[in-house]
Amino acid sequence: MDDPAKAIVAISMFGSLAYSVRAIANAVVQYRRTPAGRGGVELSSAADDRLARLEHAVDAIAVEVERISEGQRFTTRLLSERARPGEAAESAAAKPSERNGIRAN
Question: How far is the C-alpha of 20 from the C-alpha of 11, rounded, in Å?
Fold first, then answer.
């Protein structure tokens, strides 16, 4: 290698590769040293209770958000019907079979 820049790049690459291999090897050794029973997370009953309350709260929030979105859809529908009063009156006056897309002949 005549160019010093190429030598620096090559040394840097080999150094990075060696560091990465060593880090992976250390992680594997640490993983194998840890017993299977200690690897899992054990939750206390207080933590279980907190998680249950949190789950209940999230479910309640989901129900309320659904109610809000239903109200928003209703309000949007009312406002769109007010914006075009002629079409709403025509559809209200139409026969029930015509409103469903079925026309009586």
Answer: 14
Indicate whether 104 belongs to any domain. no
Q: What is the DSSP letter of 10?
A: H
DSSP state of 43: P
* Average pLDDT along the chain: 81
> Does 63 lie in the same domain as 23?
no
For residue range 42-67, list pLDDT tens digits in order.
678 888 899 999 999 999 999 999 99
Q: How far is the C-alpha of 92 from the C-alpha of 98, rounded, in Å?
A: 10
d(CA 87, CA 16): 72
Nearest to 103 by CA among 87, 86, 89, 94: 94
Is position 101 within any domain? Answer: no
Q: Residue 30 belongs to what domain range? A: 1-36
| Domain contains 30 | yes
Contacts of 104 (CB under 8 A, 6+ apart): 95, 97, 98
